[in-house]
Amino acid sequence: REEQMQRSERLRVIGELASGMAHEIRNPLTTIKGFLQLSKASGYNIESWYSLIMDEINRMSDLTGEFLQFSKPHRTNFRTESLNECVLKVISLIESEAASSGHEIHFHELTDNIHMMMDQDKMIQLLLNMMKNACEAMVANGSIHMRLSRDQKNATLIIADNGPGIPNDQLDMIFHPFFTTKETGTGLGLSICYKIVQDHQGTLEVESELGKGTRFILTFPLAGSLHQEEDNLAVG
Ligand code: ADP
Ligand code: MG
């Protein structure tokens, strides 16, 4: 019974995603078709619309690429890795792009190495998506502060930017697939993030203040504490 419920819930979600995707693809197609019809009717040179058409095609290409990431049956490949090193890797991946917009990235390591079970590729993708969003939100000369800490049970990573913030009425929507406020956004980044956090049994929260900035708060249960509980049970 439970399995059936899960199956029908899954099918419902897939149905919603598919219709969202179809909608997102139809818009650029309609635009391209319009351009082509106009150019034929008016005898205009297609060249003048080249970049507009190219933009729309790139958008569809981004969308389908990210959608595949999002919807493919995912195998997670968990190993014990250092979360600190993961953050450093992501910073090195995005540093030059951030610097080209004048953004600064600060990493506050408030703990020594946190080793936890993770799918490192997915974890990197998660953090990259968040950093990209922060960079895009800040326009120019912003700063991102990443704070990594831990207590006995959880690792906590805070990613804070001093961008424009997110209006209250949008805070609930940002994790929805296809929600975007960007002209060339796909709206899939945070949905992917959410799924990756769930895969790691973590939590993902957002706090934002208009004109001040946005912080995403990620927590992950530490493999160590999970093991310890099992040990305690065995002893008890
Ligand atoms: P996309 O980046 O393609 O728009 P996302 O799912 O990554 O899609 O983000 C959805 C929306 O959430 C963005 O369009 C933006 O409005 C908002 N958002 C996400 N991160 C931030 C941030 N750090 N600051 C301000 N707004 C943000
Ligand atoms: Mg994004």
Overview of this protein structure:
It comes from Paenibacillus roseopurpureus. This is histidine kinase. Residues 20-224 form the Histidine kinase domain. It is a single chain. The chain has 236 residues and is an alpha+beta fold. It is 53% helix and 19% strand. The protein has 6 helices and 7 strands, in the order H-H-E-H-E-E-H-E-E-H-E-E-H. It has helices spanning 2-42, 50-71, 83-100, 120-138, 189-199, 223-235, and strands spanning 79-82, 104-109, 115-118, 143-150, 154-161, 203-209, 213-221. The strands form 2 sheets. A 5-stranded mixed beta sheet has the order 2-4-5-7-6. Strand 4 and strand 5 (154-161) form a beta hairpin. The longest helix is centred in the first third of the chain and has 41 residues, at 2-42. It starts with a helix and ends with a helix. Mean pLDDT is 88; it is low at 225-236. The site of adenosine-5'-diphosphate has 19 residues, from helix 4 and helix 5.
